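FAQ

Q: What does a record look like?
A: Structure on top, sequence underneath. For example:
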């Protein structure tokens, strides 16, 4: 399954930098989920890093989570829900968002 997140997110908000960050984040997450499932599953570090990055954006942009969920895209929904869990548990999202687990 291939999703072009730029189609959904390039004009998602009025903030072009936010749109670009969302496209890059979901493109990478989609790639890892489908092409490197071992990274996605391994202690959930990759997924938590992406979710923490999203949580930082959600904290700054009040209705972002609700708006993202309306897209009904699997990877987006998974990360929004995980980001909400991280925020609800007062996890150290700044530290998680900088973890080194990524695809080179």
């Amino acid at each position: 399954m291939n999703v072009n997140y730029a189609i959904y997110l390039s004009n998602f908000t009025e903030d072009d930098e936010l749109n670009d960050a969302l496209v890059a984040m979901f493109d990478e997450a989609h790639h890892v989920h489908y092409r490197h499932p071992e990274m996605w599953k391994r202690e959930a570090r990759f997924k938590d890093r992406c979710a923490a990055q999203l949580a930082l954006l959600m904290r700054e942009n009040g209705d972002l989570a609700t708006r993202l969920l309306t897209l009904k895209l699997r990877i987006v929904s998974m990360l929004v829900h995980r980001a909400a869990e991280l925020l609800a548990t007062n996890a150290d999202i700044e530290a998680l968002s900088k973890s080194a687990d990524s695809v080179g």
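Q: Is there anything notable about this one?
A: The first helix runs from residue 5 to 9.
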